[in-house]
Design goal:
- The protein has helices at 6-33, 50-60, 67-70, 84-96, 146-162, 168-190, 192-222, 225-241, 244-260; strands at residues 42-47, 75-81, 100-107, 120-130, 133-145.
- A hairpin with a 2-residue loop joins strand 4 and strand 5 (133-145).
- It has 2 domains: 3-190, Beta Polymerase, domain 2 (2-Layer Sandwich); 194-267, no CATH class.
- With 268 residues, it is an alpha+beta fold.
- It contains 9 helices and 5 strands; from the N terminus they run H-E-H-H-E-H-E-E-E-H-H-H-H-H.
- The structure holds ligand 0O2.
- Residues 48, 52, 56, 72-73, 106, 113, 115, 117, 121, 152, 155-156 line the site of ligand 0O2.
Length: 268
């Protein structure tokens, strides 16, 4: 058997993970820039560690020479969503991407695994550019909710601890916990609109407040300082009232004042 040069073998997988993490974070960022709710909450990625690759190869009867052809999750991306409904949106986003060619989809949401594991998996081909030319590799993308992720992280550590010898009592508890996670996701789905409204108005409020503070700071350099101090006092008075409409009105008025001083374009 030829010597396995692991660093060389795994390098394109690391590149794929790095690139895809950046790309999916940009998807999230784009939603945020457009002030639209992002179906992606957290993006993570990893290259499978060599002992895990060897262990999986042994478990599946894959020869060392065939590792990269037969093990689909050497490069792994995890996209974590707030709500179950978001998972379908994320799957659609992936299906439409031109840089990913889907090989297989595994729906462990509609039908969970016997362990209780729930997640949506997409195995896709992704091409990276190396100094030896393009290299097409397989990537596994796991899409799941925060609650599903919590369960699978805990269960994964227990699997690691007990291997095939997990006590029946613990297995049962994990199954019950998986049911509880399912219930939690369903409960959250029923108040999704309300939660999204709350999150949107929090974001809106934060944007208005930073606009106001930015204008006050800019005015400080071009307007009468005592007047600016008065504006700031007025802002804090309105802020304490916690009234979004008043804050929005104050922001508009301040915009007009700043505009007359051209304070908004001040570069500091
Ligand atoms: P690690 O350490 O996370 O990398 P298949 O032949 O399709 O049934 P395969 O190829 O293992 O089996 O694919 P599958 O079942 O889709 O699982 C791929 C990955 O999903 C696993 O990788 C886990 O990350 C996760 N997963 C699958 N089943 C479970 C489960 O019951 N519990 C938890 N916590 N995670 C699960 P690895 O290599 O097993 O592990």
């Amino acid at each position: 058997m030829e010597v396995q040069l692991w660093r060389e073998i795994l390098a394109p997988y690391q590149l794929a993970v790095d690139e895809l993490v950046v790309k999916f974070n940009h998807v999230k960022q784009q939603y945020q820039n457009e002030k639209v709710y992002s179906p992606i909450e957290i993006v993570t990625g990893r290259v499978k560690r060599i002992p895990s690759i060897l262990e999986k190869a042994q478990r599946k009867g894959v020869s060392i020479e065939n590792l990269t052809d037969k093990i689909e999750d050497i490069a792994g991306i995890r996209l974590i969503c707030q709500f179950v409904e978001d998972i379908e949106t994320v799957v659609q986003i992936i299906r439409q991407r031109e840089d990913l060619e889907i090989k297989q989809e595994k729906d462990y949401i509609t039908k969970s695994k016997p362990s209780g594991y729930r997640s949506y998996h997409i195995i896709a081909y992704y091409t990276v550019q190396t100094i030896h030319g393009p290299k097409r590799i397989e990537v596994e993308i796991q899409i799941r909710t925060l609650a599903m992720n919590f369960w699978s992280t805990i269960e994964h550590s227990l699997q690691y601890k007990y291997k095939e010898h997990m006590p029946d009592e613990l297995r049962m508890r994990l199954l019950r916990a998986a049911d509880a996670v399912d219930m939690l996701d369903n409960e959250m789905a029923s108040v999704r609109d309300e939660i999204m409204d709350a999150q949107n108005s929090n974001k809106q409020k934060a944007t208005i407040i930073s606009d106001i503070l930015n204008n006050i700071e800019n005015l400080y350099y071009v307007a009468n300082k005592r007047e600016v101090a008065k504006i700031q006092d007025e802002f804090f008075k309105i802020y304490r009232k916690d009234d979004m409409q008043m804050l929005a009105r104050f922001n508009k008025q301040l915009d007009i004042i700043a505009e007359t001083y051209r304070a908004q374009t001040i570069q500091r």
